[in-house]
Amino acid sequence: MKHLYKEYIKDRHYYLLSLLFIVFFADLFLLLYGAEANALAYLNISLLIFITVMTALDYWRYRRLFRALVDFRKEPLIKDIVDDRQNLLKAYAVIIDDLKQIIKNSDEANEKKMREMIDYYTLWVHQIKTPIAAMQLLLDESGDLELKSELIKIEQYVTMVLGYLRINAETTDFVFSHVDLDKLIGEVVKEFAPVFISKHLRIEVAKTGYHFLTDEKWLAFVLGQIISNALKYTKNGSIRIYKQDHYLVVADSGIGIDPKDLPRVFEKGYSGSEGRIDKRASGIGLYLAKKILLELGSDIFIDSKLGEYTRVYIDISDRNMMIE
Question: Is the C-alpha dihedral spanning 132, 133, 134, 136 positive or negative?
Fold first, then answer.
């Protein structure tokens, strides 16, 4: 830092010149009014002492800031970008530019890793679905509904993994189109037919006659998660699916949700008191449903009474469906 005072003068030359002009104009003003030489001498000495003290303090602050920058240079990510002869403002600019580049490189690397991970799990999901489909055919022949129900759960968990990765990626593969809601409900419910039969639960689906703009694949995923939850926590009775105003409602006669858990059911990883009883609960399904619907420009909320029912309301109004 032996040449730092030169950089200080370059950085502060306007400040130093302004102080000298103050002394000059003060002397000129006093001379015009006939001040004595002794008065001018005392004034100049006083101003010079003041200027010297203020300049020394300012230089000490400048030196401390630059020393901090030089120390910062030793950080692994910032090394070799500041030298002892570098202008302080330029040093700041260099560090900021370097940090921007580091952040950009980091973002690009993370995005690449995410794409690679999604590609891997997409391939894995497609590969794992082959033996799942083969097992379903075998179970169709044997007629073992309980095993088939468990296999459907496995398929749901596999789909959830892929959905979780895709919805948290930088870009999401939304494809908006006008969807026949009744057809979509029928296809999703059909997937869970063995579970309904195995658990002796009734499924009641009311025709909606409704078409609206959304992403069919992602809405089917959300509906599948909600039906899966309803089946998990309904021991007897029925699950009803119907349209109410601009909502698609999935209502079950299950164990319900504790009022203290309701405000947090859409939090990531929160499984509530029912989830703590069922150790397999991940607390991811409703979190994904909420996140996906918000991405689609829609929303979801739940009404429940402990020990009696749970009703899940999905907003299916066209006004909320946004195309970006």
Answer: positive
* 3-class SS of residue 180: strand
Q: Are the CB atoms for 191 and 169 separated by under 8 Å?
A: no
pLDDT at 166 over 80: no
DSSP string, 78-110: TTTS--TTS-HHHHHHHHHHHHHHHHHHHHHHH
Beta bridge partners, 239, equal 203, 252
Alpha helices (runs of H) in 206-284, residue ranges in sequence order: 216-232, 272-277
Positions of E strands within the chain: 176-180, 202-205, 211-215, 238-244, 247-252, 300-305, 309-315
Specify the pTM. 0.62
Q: How many angstroms from the chain centroid is the CA of residue 157?
A: 22
Fold of 175-324: Heat Shock Protein 90 (3.30.565)
Q: Give residue 284's pLDDT.
A: 84
- Locate the domains of the chain by residue range: 4-86, 110-173, 175-324
Torsion of CA 101, 106, 109, 111, to 10 degrees: -110
Question: What are the angstrom distances between the C-alpha of 131 and each of 109, 127, 156?
Answer: 34, 8, 14
Q: How confident is the model at residue 323 (pLDDT cuts 50, 70, 90)?
A: very low
58 pLDDT band (50/70/90 cuts)? confident
Distance CA 87, CA 15 (A): 16
Q: Determine the Cα–Cα distance for residues 293 and 303; give it in Å rounded to an integer.
A: 17
